[in-house]
Amino acid sequence: MAGFAVEYSGANIVLIFGHYTYGNVLGIKFLGVPLIIGINWFIVMYCAGVATQFYENSMLKRIAAKGLTIQTNVQKISFVIDASLLAVFFDWIMEPVAGKLGFWQWEGGHIPFYNYVCWLVISALLLALFRRLPFNKRNIFAVHLFIIQVLFFLVLRTFL
Prior knowledge:
5 helices; two-stranded antiparallel sheet; single chain; mainly alpha
């Protein structure tokens, strides 16, 4: 729901991401935004969060094996920064492909840097919530799904 709300604001109010319009490729729209976009935001945030948590758990085990610890606040901040950067990296891989496939088009034909700044801020907020919510964040399928999505868009970015 949050992802859809962000995209609605971005596409209709233009304060978020920059000037862009959706094509007709992504299917049914509600209020001018394809419904699949909300699902995509959830998948990207969930997968980036789970992948970062997986990596963090691995690193914390290594650190603990050396008899060291890291403060909880540092872990929380590191998680939000790392997961947000991972989400922005995914968007950076996906954006050129999305334009070529007609998912959306940027005014002027180029992706503004502001889009990535917005992605970083919004991702940080959503992933801070992800970190705070009490649910099982161990899902190896989500890690694999994230890797598959990145590879999929990398291949398309390379050959389109």
